[in-house]
Each structure stands twice: as C-alpha cells, then as structure tokens.
Fold this sequence. Notes:
The protein is of the alpha+beta class. Helix content is 41%, strand content 19%. Strands 15, 16, 17, 18, 19, 20 and 21 form a seven-stranded antiparallel sheet that branches. Strands 1-2-3-4-5-6 form a six-stranded mixed sheet. A hairpin with an 8-residue loop joins β10 and β11.
Amino acid sequence: MTIPESIKKFITWIQGFDHRILQNEDDVKEKLILPMFHYLCYPEKCHREYPLKTSKSGKYGKNPEIAHIYYTTDNIEQQNTDTSLIFIEAIEPYTNKFHDAIEQAKFYSIHFNPLFFIVTNGYQVKVFKRVRYHKEESIFDLDIDTLKNIDIASNFYNELNFDLLKNIDKNTPSILTYTKYNLIERLIRRYPDLQDVLEQCDFEPSTTREGYRLIIVKTKVAIACNLPKAFGEGNCEIEFSSIILRGLKIFLNHQDILGQLMTGLHTQPDWGCRRFFKQLDKNAFEVYLGQTTLILSELEAVDLCLCIDGVCQEYKNLIIEFENTLETWNFEFVKFTESRGFILFSVKQELWDLMQQFANEFDYTKGKSEWHLFHKEYISIRVSRGIREHTFILPKIDKDLSLLPNNQINIVYELNDVNLQSIETHKLTLWQQDIGVLGTWTARYTKQWLLEKYIPKVINYYSGKSQLSETELLAKITNYTSDRALIKEIDNLRDLVPYLRDIQSWLHIYVDNIAASLLKPYYQGYTNLVRNTDSSITGIDYIIENLHRIEWKNTQEEIPHNSRDWKNLTFKHAIDCLDQQVARINNCKYENSFKADLITRTFIWIIQNGKISFSQAQLNAAKQALLPLWEQSRFEMRHVYPNR
C-alpha cells in the first residue's frame, strides 16, 4: 500500500528526532511541538500561544506555562472556541509529573473547547480526545521511540492531521458518531465486558452557568438551556449518552418548557407527577419531549428528571424574580404586535388623547420643569429625561392598529428593550439595582404615578381647554384593583377564601399527581385551623360527601342515597375524616389532585359557613402552609397552563 507523501515526511522527521537535545520547555516547543505540527500540515498562522494562570489567586507566575492552540483559520479575529482544534501543554523535559499538567489541560480545554488536548515533556506524548459532555478519552499514550514505528506514526498522523480535523463541525454529532462506532468496533474486536463499554458512553456529570446559559449534565442525559430574560422566551436542547440515542438532539422552545416540563419538579418518574412521562413497566418509560417520543430506561428517566429539575427550577426562579422585581403579578400579561407588557387600567379615547398631548408638549428637550420628563415615542408615552428611562406606557391596540371596542383603551406597562438593556448584556446585578423611583419604574409604581400624579396633572392642565369637565374625565378611568389582603397580613379568617379558591381552581385542572411534600403542611395546618368549628355548621352532608368521595375507587360514581344516614353524622366525624387524610398523606410520596381538590373544597366551605375558634398560632401555621402552595398555583396558572 502506497504511503502518501505528507505521511512520509512526518515519518522521516519523527524518526530523525532526538529527544536528548531538549533542555527546557522552550526546547520542547521549538524542537518538538512546532515541527511536529508543521509536518501534520498545520499552517503557522493557525498557531497561537497563551500564558496559563498557575496560582490560586488567578495571577500569572513569574514564568507562566505556555499553552499552544491550533485553529482551523489563520484569521485572528475568527480564532475562538468554535474554531479551536488542539490544545498543547508542554512541561519540563524528563519530568514525570503528568497528573497536574493533565488536570490543568482538562480545565483550560473546557474554556478553549478544542477537539483534542496534548500534554508532553518532549519524550512522552499523551493525547486526549474531548467529546461534548463526556469524560476525555486517551487515544495516544506513547513515547517518541514508539512513535518512530511506521504504523504507529501513520496512525498518529491520520488521527491528528490538519486536513482531517479542520473539516469536523463541532456543532454536529459527527465526532460523537465516530466515537460511537469506534467503541462498537472495540467491542467486536476485543470482546470486553459489555458494561465497561456502556460506561464509556456515559456523560461526565457537570453543571455550568454563564449568564443566561445553563448546562446540566448527568450520566445519561445533558440539557443545555438558554434561560429567559425579562419575560422573553428561552429554549433548551436535550441529548442522551446511550449508544442507541447518541447524536439525537431534541430542541424545546419556551412553550414546550413551560407547558410540558415545568410541573412535577423534584419528583420521581414513576410517581405520575410529570405529564410527559408514561410508565410502561418497572424499567421502561415512554417520554414525550416536544414532538419526539422516546423509550427510556429507568436510569435514563431518573437522569432526565434530575436535569429537568435543575434547568426548570432556575427557569422558574428567573420568571418569578422578574415578576417580583417589576411588581407585575397583579396585572394581566399581554402580547401584541411586537410589544409585550401588563394592563394597568383603562381610559376612554378622550383622556388618552390628552395624556399623549401633554407628553408631547412636555418633551424633556423643550424645558426644565419637573414635568418636562417625556420623550416622543410614536403612539406610546415614554417617561424619560434622555439619560434615564423610567417607564414606557403603551395603548393596547389590535392587529389592525385600531382602538379597542367601546372607545376604551387599555393602558399597558410595556417591557421595553431600552430600559431592560442591562439584562440583554447579562448584567443581572445592575438590572436589579436599577429598579426604583430614580431608575426603572415597576408596574405598580407606574400605575400609582399615573393615577395619582400624571392624570390629575393632565386634567388640571387642560381643564379650561377641554370640553369635558374634570369629573367627566375622571369617570373615563376604569381601574382594576384587588381587594385582597396579603396572605401574611390576614387576620380575618374569611380573607383566606380567595386564595383557597385559587388553589382549588388550579387543582381542578391539574390532572397529574402532586408531590405530597407540598400538601402535607397544608392538610395539617387547615385541619388544625378548623378543628374547633361549631357543630351547628350548615352543609354537613356536603362536607362528609367530599371527604368520603376521596376513598372511592370510582371518583365519578354518585353516593347511594341509602349509604349513609347523614342526619346522624356530626362535625366531629368530619374532623376524624380530615385527621385520617393527614395521617394518610404523611405516609405518601404523592397525592392525586382530585383528592386535594375535594379537601380544599371542604376547607373553603367550613371557613365560609362555620363559627371557628382558633389560636394565633393555628392561623399563622395555616398562612405559612398556604403561601408556597398558592404561589405554585399562581405561577402555573399564569405561565404553565397558557402554554399547554
């Protein structure tokens, strides 16, 4: 078989190389690394050097070690993690302290993202292949004398030459496919233990977070997620390590993540709490991810759950953080044309025209009074002094840019990219610190400012010019307010009912099982709260019916009229039933949402219709148990169910 000329030149050079001439690291570079990669056909301009930080403080030492990187391109501006091919670290000749050097090379390889990394002391050459999410694979561990063998030198050249590596696309599964078939070939050729081969396919677990990019890797599954920014949309990509699924990438958009993955977090796949899982048998699950259906083993299903838990919890936390920081929970979220925001209240056309006219007249460039704080912005009102964007007010319009019916205009607190630009640059801390009266206004403060300051000022300013009186203009405001007391501030027991109704509505459409850990304090807290209810409460038959339906196998079955003598049952029997439910759930891992719905209906009825004696401690415990459950229901009703 004819050996190509390029390989002949490499063999001739390596056979003529004498490692005994090497005296220091510079010699390793000048006399081994650079000539070797020259004969591997790497252009000189594709080579760059980087000093490595070696101290814990992150500073360079007096004589920092130098890393050598080879890229696919000779264009310096394009030499980055997408174009890096090989990372080489040279150490002192004759030293055998490879462990620390290899660990350091592994660390820096994560940042430079090459296909291979090499550690050499000029005599021994250790070459490792990097595969996405996997533990590195040693492909060559030999000395220079061994490398002088014609077959080994040819193999070395064929694995590492520039013409081969430059054509590998890191963003496709080609290198993963190669690794898969390489492992299968070894299995056929050497007949090793099957489990050993499968373990080589496993990913190396890790968690990486850079700004809004989160990557969570478990042994069998890896998820790379772009997290959402300020009510924007994120997405994720799921990969599997098994030989059968290797190379498959499942892309999920924002709607998929919220609608499919977000419920049932931190539960086991066999609990029935996750809507995208269907258990086929003890060790097999059918999984629906976006438009893809897979069959996974129990180990793969568990790792998928762990990855989803990590990604979705952070995804959820960011959405909640944005809502909390911008104080938007009490307002309806709307998305129209190319804008998104929250409806604060409504006004008639005449008042909106005056509001916009005032903003145009008091542009910040036209004067220096306290009211010259607007900037002309098409149909919106932009509160700004040129260097500080406070808020954007937008009238809600339809697709045809016509006003809403009945001459009514929704005033929308707009999420504008201008005043959220710090988020786009990943400056999380800066964005949070900028929220306030002097910076970016929240939705709640914007509404307060409009109703208490801006609109009264507009009406007063145009009172002599408008054909409508002040009273007529104020009557054109439709305010959307919530009369609810905050859960933590509730002292009147019946003020809990609106929150319990929210939870009951959520449970009624939940369908899937719920982690018992979320319901245990809720069942216990409210059972204790209603324990001392006057026995004269009306509707005892409704209460007992709900509690007994929990035990029925067929939840759609009606109660036989002669099954109970309802007249002989007392409220004590109801409390006994509730205590049984508390004892039951304390021994459960998960709860059927239908049962939780019935128990919540029971609590609502008792609180609305009963005369209850309770202590402050019982009330506080009930409020504390209610808050996380209600916040869960609020999040899912607002962000999860609309995306199903």
